[in-house]
Design brief:
By secondary structure, the chain is of the alpha/beta class. The protein has 19 helices and eleven strands. The site of S-adenosylmethionine has 18 residues, from α13, β6 and α17.
């Protein structure tokens, strides 16, 4: 691989914004890629993948490069140099790379790789927490898996097409996919590509959705004609899947505290041809109260630490704080207590997170079942999906029935 000056500089600029200004990696990359219209697909993927890589390995690379936050421009170049040397990329004779101690970089890498928090590049508190919650063996495996690059998985929109037909259509757009056993609507891309540009995407034939995430809507056991509340619907990844499983029949009420996310949901629903979704912004508790005892199914895709999706969002390792986790656990329990009231007798509720921590998952369900509001519920089944077992995102889902 040959390094191109403008691409490397763009990457370093992006890193500065992410690390020093605290901006979100995905937003910064999106903005950076708009900087030069002449960049082709390869150039763009170099910037995106290299930036994500260095975000993922920030702690390890900073330690090897012997630099500390806030990072000066030369510090970021040193981190970039570590990235390049560890990948065996030949360094050009630019002043930024003069005197690079290649052997020392490799030696430090070998040394630090013996210590998990450096090898997996994670903050101390997170390493301690992961081990405390999952045990040494599972955490070591899991954090390793969560540092792998996530495959691109899409969900065929059965309102418009089957996965087999979709695969054929994408092939014509030079995108090769393959089926995933046990995930009936999923296709995985054989090679990374910008699939948002395809006509198939613009026509609403699929959504990008990880394989584990595709299990959540199915877990609710929805059927056409039901009344379903998607209580933390966000931009609607699961609502759209629910609509497809319900064959557009019945009613989905998509709630969220953020109206702008629901706006995006509406746009996506239109593209997908999902006609049975109504959005309601939770401005006050009346919105929830109005729905008490009315739903056949309630999906709580709860706000969480996002620790199960680190491979897709490595930035979260640095943004997440212990206090946020304490608050989010409290919110999760409040949501369970409050939103469970929207279910009818005999109705079912799914509590799901994209976290791998028992304290956000099974412990929350246990606490709920032992509370006053939970005494009318029974746990039908639950599923803990670890990334190290499944090869996809870490997730948790519990199915509860209102007696
Ligand atoms: C995991 S995300 C949902 C993702 C979405 N279901 C999807 O599949 O695309 C959690 C969502 O919960 C929302 N949220 C946070 N607090 C909430 C609350 N008290 N009530 C309802 N939604 C809430 C967030 O805005 C966020 O969109």
């Amino acid at each position: 691989m040959r390094l191109h000056r403008n691409l490397v500089f763009a990457t370093v600029d992006a890193l500065s914004e992410i690390f020093n200004e605290g901006n979100y990696a995905d937003k910064v990359i999106e903005k950076t890629l708009k900087r030069d219209k002449r960049w082709g697909a390869r150039d763009r993927s170099f910037i995106a993948e290299t930036t994500y890589d260095i975000v993922r390995w920030k702690r390890l690379y900073a330690e090897i490069a012997d630099v500390k936050a806030p990072f000066k421009r030369e510090d970021l170049f040193r981190m970039f140099t570590v990235w390049a040397v560890l990948r065996g990329i030949k360094l050009p004779d630019w002043p930024q790379f003069a005197g690079t101690p290649e052997r020392r970089i490799k030696g430090r890498f070998d040394e630090l790789s013996k210590i998990r928090k450096f090898r997996e590049s994670i903050p101390d508190w997170l390493d301690l927490l992961g081990e405390k919650e999952l045990g040494e063996k599972t955490w070591t495996k899991e954090i390793h898996a969560l540092n792998e690059l996530a495959p691109v998985v899409i969900r065929a929109n059965r309102l418009k097409i089957s996965p087999e037909q979709l695969s054929e259509i994408l092939k014509k757009e030079e995108i090769e996919t393959q089926n995933l056993k046990n995930y009936p609507d999923a296709l995985v891309l054989k090679e990374r590509a910008n699939i948002f540009k395809t006509k198939a995407f613009q026509d609403g034939l699929f959504e990008v959705q990880d394989a584990s995430s595709q299990r959540v809507a199915e877990f609710t056991g929805v059927e056409p004609g039901m009344r379903v509340v998607d209580a933390c619907a966000g931009a609607g990844g699961k609502s759209l899947h629910l609509a497809a499983l319900m064959e557009n029949k019945g009613q989905i009420i998509a709630l969220d505290i953020y109206g702008n996310k629901l706006k995006e949901l509406k746009r996506r629903a239109k593209r997908a041809g999902a006609h049975n979704i109504e959005t309601r912004s939770i401005e006050n508790n009346k919105v929830i109260k109005k729905l008490y005892n009315s739903a056949d199914r309630v999906l709580i895709d709860a706000p969480c630490s996002g620790l199960g999706v680190l491979s897709r969002n490595p930035d979260a390792k640095w943004k997440l704080q212990p206090e946020f986790l304490d608050n989010i656990r409290q919110t999760q329990q409040e949501i369970l207590q409050q939103y469970s009231k929207m279910l009818k007798r005999g109705g079912k509720m799914v509590y799901a997170t994209c976290s791998i921590l028992p304290s956000e998952n099974q412990k929350q369900v246990e606490f709920f079942l032992n509370s006053e509001d939970g005494k009318d519920f029974r746990l039908v089944k639950d599923e803990k999906i670890l990334s190290s077992d499944s090869g996809y995102d870490g997730f948790y889902m519990a199915l509860l029935e209102k007696k």
